[in-house]
Amino acid sequence: MRHASSLNIVNGPGSYSSRGEASNSRLTPEIPTLLQEIMDVEHLWQYNESELSRLGKSGSGAGAGSGAGAGANPLLAASGITPHTSSADLLADLCHIADHRLYKIVKWCKSLPLFKNISIDDQICLLINSWCELLVLSCCYRGVGTPGEVRVGGGRGLTLHQSAKFGLTPCIERMLSFTDHLRRLRVDRYEYVALKVIVLLTSDAPELREAEKVRASQEKALAALQAYTAAHSPDAPAKFGELLLRIPELQRTCQFFMQVGKEMLNPANKSKDGDGPSFNLLMELLRGDH
Questions:
Q1: Structural domain span for residue 120
Q2: SUPFAM superfamilies, per this entry (predicted)?
Q3: For the chain, which has fewer Cβ within 10 Å, the N-terminal or C-terminal residue?
Q4: Would you say residue 79 lies in a domain?
Q5: Does the pLDDT at position 48 exceed 90?
């Protein structure tokens, strides 16, 4: 029966004629075991309501007292956001949010079946290399159901027109374009979580010590996604390849996003009235409900 199930995954639903013993599960292709294991830990990625509430309250009081730890946050430091390049108060607030998000990302990563066998040093390299792509992918996927809007914290949406007054039009434009591709491809939740793991396990990340081990883990995730798309989207044989083509686009979007973020945080670029609304929006995109 296990062999028959694997054949059914390759050939798609309805490959076998129904007989008296045929069950409904035959009509619905199975989920690859690895993909289901990834889905089982997806809840660790998301904030629950109490966590969002605590984060919102403590975020307003992060203040200058948190400035000492600003340079220690690996996500921000790796992106070139440091006390020397940014306003101290704004950096302290961003660091506070990033610390919480880093905690959630690490908890999710450490529970992934493919991540556990990777060395700690390489785990850190992978996280620093992919955190922005993971957050942007998550944010864009949440916006699939709301065309023309990027979903930010608190369930609010931001349109391209609205983004102009925040100075974020180029970023939002790229994110909306990426979201349109996800919508066109009808990316479902299993494909989304598989893409996140594939993005995380990038074997060409700088300073990896065991790149081959990371590459082998990524190939397992790729195989699971390919099996899933072949079984669940038999009428779209090119879907797997199109999903992978979105990854370079995601990386380019993040590179641009980080550059805009650093410019926004630079005190030299701060307007007379301050950039509070833009910066608050940047923090909401980082924190999000995703």
A1: 87-265+278-287
A2: Nuclear receptor ligand-binding domain
A3: N
A4: no
A5: no
- Count, residues in the chain: 290
Higher pLDDT, 141 or 28: 141
Rounded distance between C-alpha atoms, residue 147 and residue 264, angstroms: 27
DSSP string for 177-225: HHHHHHHHTT--HHHHHHHHHHHH--TT-TT-S-HHHHHHHHHHHHHHH
**76-90, 99-113, 259-273: range with lowest mean pLDDT:** 76-90
Number of domains the chain is built from: 1
- Which residue in this structure is represented by tokens 């594939």? 198
The pLDDT of residue 10 is 37
Report residue 217 as tokens.
Answer: 């883990």
Judge whether 162 lies within some domain. Answer: yes
Three-class SS state of 158: strand
Residue 14 lies in a domain: no
CB atoms within 10 A of CB 205: 17
What CATH number does the domain containing 198 carry?
1.10.565.10
The pTM of the full predicted model, rounded to 2 decimals, is: 0.72
**In which element (H, E) is residue 159 found?**
strand 157-159
Q: How far is the C-alpha of 263 from the C-alpha of 282, rounded, in Å? A: 12
**266, 85 contact by CB (below 8 A):** yes
Rounded to an integer, the average pLDDT of 29-40 is 94
What are the backbone dihedrals phi and psi of residue 106, each rounded to the nearest 5 degrees, phi first? -65, -45
Residue with tokens 């006390």: 83
DSSP for 28-49, please give it. Answer: SPPPPHHHHHHHHTGGGTS--H
What is the pLDDT, as a whole number, of residue 3? 39
Do the beta carbons of residue 36 and residue 13 sit within 8 Å? no
What does the mean pLDDT of the chain come to?
74
Please report how many Cα atoms fall inside a 13 Å half-sphere around the Cα of residue 34, on the Cβ side.
20
